[in-house]
Fold this protein.
Amino acid sequence: MADILKKIRETSFFKELSDDASSAVAARALARRFRPGDAVMRKGDPADSFFVVLDGHLKIVTTDAKGDEIIINKVGPGESVGEIALMDELPRSAGVVALDDVDALELTKDAFFDLLDDRLDVSLGILRGLSHRLRFSTKYIETAIDWSQKTAEGDYSFLEQTQPLSAAAASDDAKAAQLLSAFFSMARKVKEREDGLKQELERLTFEIDQERRKKEFDQITGTEFYAKLKEQAQELRRKRASG
Amino acid sequence: MTGKIVSIHSFRGGTGKSNAASNLAAQVALTGRRVGVVDTDIQSPGIHVLFGLDEQKMGKTLNDFLHGKAAIREVGYPVGQNTGGGEGRDKLAGKELYLFPSSIKGREISQILKDGVDFNRLNEGLQTAISEFNLDYLFIDTHPGLNEETLLSIATSDILIIILRPDNQDFQGTSVTVDIARSLDVPNLFLAVNKALPKHMNRPEFNKEIERLFNAAVISVMPLSFDMAENASQDLFSLRFPDHEWSKALKDIVPYILNAK
């Protein structure tokens, strides 16, 4: 039981809950076990419960136009699926299938709302957790927007001022961090390519010494031979023009 | 008489001028036009090799004509009747292509250099070649640089194609050549880049840069090619390998010649 409480508090959804509030959640949750390939949720089903993964992994899947399966995401211990749908009451937008042996806690919609009714501390804890996620998401989005604008303007100074984020950071915001990390390396590659092109362009620029050009031209055209040649050429062209 | 004189020139040696001249002449001959090629590079003749003319078989030359020892009719060598082997050259069989070679004998070369080339005599030779062989186009492979024979060739040209490599030294010399050609009122002046590196290929800004420098149209960018080097002037490359990148770029030039006024 202590183990389950710990795992509940390790989830991002319930991380702000006190011991007492976590116990209240555990008391209303159902322990569920899935075998590899078991369907946990089906696309289009009504959203009537959500799951917290304790052990094992789930895949979130949908199908493409040809009916082939596409894996949208993978979910592991400490992560939950279906909690948002419980609140906005839309049907399941994707299916969820067990990838291996999965231990999970299921909280039905009724149990969840009973819990919210009964326990103000649980409600506040969940709100706090959601606010926390929202705040971090907003911050990441703002950073990504800032970087995008700078990249669009060709200002890559943030690449020097910012350290690349470790995609492996085991935080609640690992996915957002991963996004920023991917953005960071994209911007760096764009900059490298741009630098390369700039270099190429420089090498495509040629210079002519105009003074030397004029001097050499004058040397050739200043001779008696040239004056005569020009005259003969003019006469030749006149003749040809008149047929 | 409507035959046009097309001079192929480059400021420095090694630009691939003779290869460009011979292949262009051959490409124009393939379209059914009557074509002549004159080697006015009398100091270092070489275009005859590309047309498979054996040095022992070489009869009367341009030198003989300039010294009054032969008529121009005797100098013209019909390549279409003697393709001299070579998979590419064989495609010229039956085509009207005449080569007017320069002598490769040291004594004759030094003689003509000592005497100099008379404008009127050379010009008479070119005009006679056009009329007697009823040529549509007479190509002149010039000596690199801006010596007197080259100035004569430029002065008499209807079309001047300057071959240049993408490096500053070539550009400097080419700028003077362009100015001279304008001073001599050459009606059609074109630039063709040869031995271009991959970074120059299909780069409109590269062509624009050259056009900006010289105020003349860039009508072809031919790549530096190991396949060309491998061919070692043994055959007419664009006839032997018509689908090669170099051959395609060379063929870009042909319509500019055919459409020139």
Observations:
- Chain A has three domains: 2-118, 130-203, 210-241.
- The domain at 2-118 of chain A is CATH 2.60.120.10 (Jelly Rolls).
- Chain A is about 55% helix and 15% strand.
- The first strand of chain A starts at residue 30 and ends at 34.
